[in-house]
Write a structure and sequence with these properties.
It contains 6 helices and 13 strands. It is an alpha+beta fold. The longest helix is centred in the last third of the chain and has 20 residues. About 35% of the residues are buried.
Length: about 270
Amino acid sequence: MDRVQLATFITTRLEEEIIRLKQFFSKTQPQIGYFIIDDLLPKNIAQQIHTCFPDLTKTKERKNLREHKHVAYQMNQYHPLLEEVIYAFQEKSVVHLISEICNIQSLLPDENLYAGGLSLMAKDNYLSPHLDNSHDKNRELWRVLNVLYYTTPNWKDSDGGNLELWPSGLKRKQVSISCKFNRLVVMATHQKSWHSVSKVSTNFVRCCVSNYYFSEKALLENDNFHVTTFRGRPSQKVKDVLLKLDNALRSSVRKFFKKGIRENPHQYKK
C-alpha cells in the first residue's frame, strides 16, 4: 500500500461527505474552523497502520511544564507504511479537496514534517492549551491547517487524550473531540485557535498521524508571528503564570534570532 493508493481512499471518502464537511467548516470558521470525518480508510488498512506504530522506546519523549508526549519524525527509521500514510495527506488530490472543503486557496503541505509526523501519548500524557507556531521552519509561510488522523482501535471518550478546542477563549468551555479510531480531524490554525489534549487515562497509547498545511497568506488579517504559545487551564493559575513567562522569554529570543538559537530538530532529515 503506497501513498497514491492511500490518497485515493482518502479522497473517495472526503468526496462522499464533501457537502456536509463544507457546511460544518463554514459554520465553525468564525471562531476555529474544523471538520471531522470518521471511517476515513478501510478498517483493515487503518488497523495495519496502527500495528506499524513504533514502540515508545523508539520515539522522542517531550516532558516539561507545557506538555508530555512522544513524537517520531525521522520516518526512514520506522515501518515504510507510516511514511506512506503521512505523505498520502500531502498528495495533490487530498490537498486540493481539503482546500475546497475549507475554502482556503493555495495550500502547501510540508515535506519536511516540521512539528509533524507521528504523535504518541501514553498514560498521563497531555498537551496544555496552546497556539501552534505561526510559521514554517524557515519562517516564510503561515501555518493554516492542522491535519490529524487517529489510529488507535477501540478508543473511548473516557480514555482521555481528547482534542480540545477553545473557540471562545480559555475562560469559556472547550469543545472536546474524541480521538476515535480511523477518524480525521482538520482544524484551522491562527492566533485565536487555542487547543489542547486532555490527559490520557488508559494504559493504551493514543496514536496519531500529524500533518500541517501552510500558505503564503495568514488566515486572519491581524495574525502576527508567534512561537508555540502555551497557557495553563482555567484551574491552573500558578502554571498559567509560569507559562506566560516562558512564552515571553521564547518570544524575546526569536526577536533576535529569527529561527531560534538552534535549529528545531523536529523535522524529517532525508
